[in-house]
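Interim report, section 4.2 (structural modelling).
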Amino acid sequence: NAGVTQTPKFQVLKTGQSMTLQCAQDMNHNSMYWYRQDPGMGLRLIYYSASEGTTDKGEVPNGYNVSRLNKREFSLRLESAAPSQTSVYFCASSAIAGHTDTQYFGPGTRLTVL
Amino acid sequence: AQSVAQPEDQVNVAEGNPLTVKCTYSVSGNPYLFWYVQYPNRGLQFLLKYITGDNLVKGSYGFEAEFNKSQTSFHLKKPSALVSDSALYFCAVRDTGSARQLTFGSGTQLTVLP
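Predicted structure of the assembly:
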């Protein structure tokens, strides 16, 4: 099993450009998440999908959109990138979106917006 | 609202010595607590979690954590540190009142000196 995979690993954008970050999991998990990691701030939740067909905002959703394409895939889109979106982005999944469930993380995408 | 504090940005310990990485939390209901480790340029890896029951939780790679309700703490410990334990450690919490969101601390960089 590959677990959680993310593409691309690195990306450089100019301000105003758009891009989509891809995430896939092969653990048959129902729930998926997108986080951003900034120095000294831990991880902050952008959006999550408790189950296929549903998405909800997290702590920092502004400037992002998501699509739960199917049970395996959950993409994150930046419509008009800004320098403040320079960050490392992590996708995660869990069996269900329950209080006790463990989340499993992908390797991350390092995004720089110039 | 739930929150997590990791009061030490950096912890240094000599190889073979015991290590402690501190975490305190604040929740409105019952806490569900997690520890993750992040190696350079990698995603987060799950170490252990406290849900209920025994206050001492054992996890991967010889790590354990002690839940202390009166002090609202969940410190990570290991009896004998290895150089390979050097990494960034994150504490995270959910409570019974949260909308599935996992709140992370800011992280503690552990360096084990040979």
